[in-house]
Amino acid sequence: MQNLGVSRPLPHVGRFLNQCGPTPLVPVQLHPDSPIIWCKLEFLNPSGSTKDRIARYMVEKAWRVGQLREGGTVVEASSGSTSIALALTCAQLGLKFVAVMPEGVSHERVLMIRAYGAEVILVPRESGIRGAIATAEAYGLEHGALYTRQFENPDNAEAHRLWTGQEILSQIPQGMVHAVVSGVGTGGTIVGLYSAFAQAGCRTIPVAARPIHRYGGVHAEIECCSFSTRVPGVVDGISKLYTQEALPGLRELDIDEDAALQTTRALIRKGFPVGPSTGLNFCAAELIARELGPEAQVVTVFADRMERYFSTELFAQ
Ligand code: PMP
């Protein structure tokens, strides 16, 4: 990773933690007449997702500025991936981690987090990720723990601007990215990558992939849609990082949730062991690539691994 300028040495950063990134960037084409998409294989990071980047960056930065000390505690609200990444990072650094998540997240996730020695607090399903955020904030205040605030912490996007984004620029032909596509949870991925590419002089279109649940239909009285909750990690309207100002020229593409799941299965059959948000990303990337034409270099992220979804609908068929 980039030199973070860490002045206070971290307790025991092993070589394993330093293995986070660089990940491959590979061209993927699902069918002979489909566009080619440049895919960043972030599921190859140590905990199995792109969130290892932000976990390491946020924790290391907090350590450097003295917000964290030996044996300290970190707390975060997350639907899963960030918690797994922070649990692994804290395990390696000898820190305590507390994950606050809404009930109903896949059981595999809870097991992984606990296996790393972290504590899991489940808030009622109805209170959702907003309830988890409020509980994490309160825990931080009460116990003097570092609340990493992934939904608003600029270091989340910075990790991708300074790290993931620079890797992509050095891997893609001519260092040229015409569009970058991601589903939005915290918004850190799309904001960080877009700003890396824009600062490198690319005229990149930022594209947010929105999973959509359709109801009604041609024979029904109403045909409408709502934001889907079937793509874990991609949530609506919570991020403070995802703003029009941070993403000039932003395009939002609505992707049917069933198409996202089918594409995830198709990618797995091609040998990419990915989760549902990757299928969502890939669908939107194909759409924008078709629109921009064959010369366009479209980048997306293969965000996390399939194993954490074995008990979910993705594997029901
Ligand atoms: N995919 C998965 C599996 C995730 O967990 C998340 C974030 N929670 C995202 C995509 C979205 O990334 P970001 O938070 O950077 O917007």
Give your account of this protein's structure:
The protein is an alpha/beta fold and 317 residues long. It has 2 domains: 15-44 and 162-315, Rossmann fold (3-Layer(aba) Sandwich), CATH 3.40.50; 51-147, Rossmann fold (3-Layer(aba) Sandwich), CATH 3.40.50.1100. It has helices spanning 51-64, 81-93, 107-115, 128-143, 154-171, 188-199, 257-269, 276-292, and strands spanning 25-28, 37-41, 73-77, 96-102, 119-123, 146-147, 179-183, 205-216, 223-227, 251-256, 298-302. Strands 1, 2, 7, 8, 9, 10 and 11 form a 7-stranded mixed β-sheet that branches. The protein has a 4-stranded parallel β-sheet with strand order 5-4-3-6, with helices on both faces. Helix 1 (51-64) packs across helix 5 (154-171), helix 5 packs across helix 6 and helix 7 crosses helix 8 (276-292). The termini are far apart. 4'-deoxy-4'-aminopyridoxal-5'-phosphate is lined by residues 79-82, 183-189, 233-234, 275, 277, 303-304.
- Biggest sheet details: 7 strands, mixed
The ordered string of helix (H) and strand (E) elements is: EEHEHEHEHEHEHEEEHHE
Overall shape: it is: globular
Number of domains: 2
CATH overall fold name of the largest domain: Rossmann fold
Give the number of DSSP strands.
11
CATH architecture of the largest domain: 3-Layer(aba) Sandwich
- Rg from C-alpha positions? 19 Å
What share of the residues does DSSP label as strand, in percent?
15-25%
Note poorly predicted spans: 1-6
Please write the CATH class name of the largest domain: Alpha Beta
The helix content is: 25-40%
